[in-house]
Amino acid sequence: MNKFKFISLLSAVVISAVSLTACGEKTQVSTPDANKLPSAIENYADDPEIAKNKSETTLGKPVTINDTVYTLNNVIDAGIVLDNLRYYYLDITVKNTSDKDYSINGLNNFYLILPDGTEVLSNVRADLYAKQSFTEYTQFINLEAGAEYNGYVGYCLNPDVDQFTVCFFPTGDSNDKSNVVCTEITPDMIIAPPAGLIK
Fold first, then answer.
1. Which of 99, 100, 96, 97 is nearest to 109 (CA)?
2. Sign of the C-alpha dihedral, residues 147, 141, 151, 56?
3. At a CB cut-off of 8 Å and minimum separation 6, what does 79 contact?
């Protein structure tokens, strides 16, 4: 009986240690500066094909690559700061000019580059806020052949960050990330939420 008690006690200690280690790892992952999120292309660091072709555009100017017409219409400051993070949203239009359906989403197709070179991915907190507060919001879509989508991609940045580069991978139906479209954003380009956007 004592042997079984010892094994049970030992098992409990091992499980507790694993749980504490896992919690410790989660804490370490979540505590860095909110802007230093995983790079949108760091998983492809050894692939020279990723983002090898860079195109630049400006607000409101469409760019066509890989049967995709992409326009960054506006960058919106939602006007809120939660947990010391300011919420920004990209107002985008994407048109599929191919004869195949493909997916577009904030995590796979978009990222920001801050002035210090840090790359920032779309943030789930911004996604949740928009789902609750915007009159209409969809982050992940299946873009049918010939269809056009207008929507928003959300980011959480430090309150003092108001300048960055918006980057878009026009992956088409092949998830080809060799092309990237970049738009430089300065403080004077960022707008307040348009009428009717917030509930």
1. 96
2. negative
3. 192, 193
Q: Kindly give, in sequence order, each residue whose CB lies less than 8 Å from that of residue 7, ignoring residues fewer than 6 positions away.
A: none
Q: Which helix (H) or strand (E) holds 155?
A: strand 148-157
Asked whether 96 and 68 are in contact (CB, 8 A), the reply is yes
Q: Which tokens is 64 given? A: 């066509």
Percent residues over pLDDT 70 in the chain: 76
Measured on CA atoms in the order 154, 142, 74, 62, is the torsion positive or negative? Answer: positive
For the chain, the residue count is 199
At 48, list the tokens. Answer: 């020279």
Q: How confident is the model at residue 46 (pLDDT cuts 50, 70, 90)?
A: low
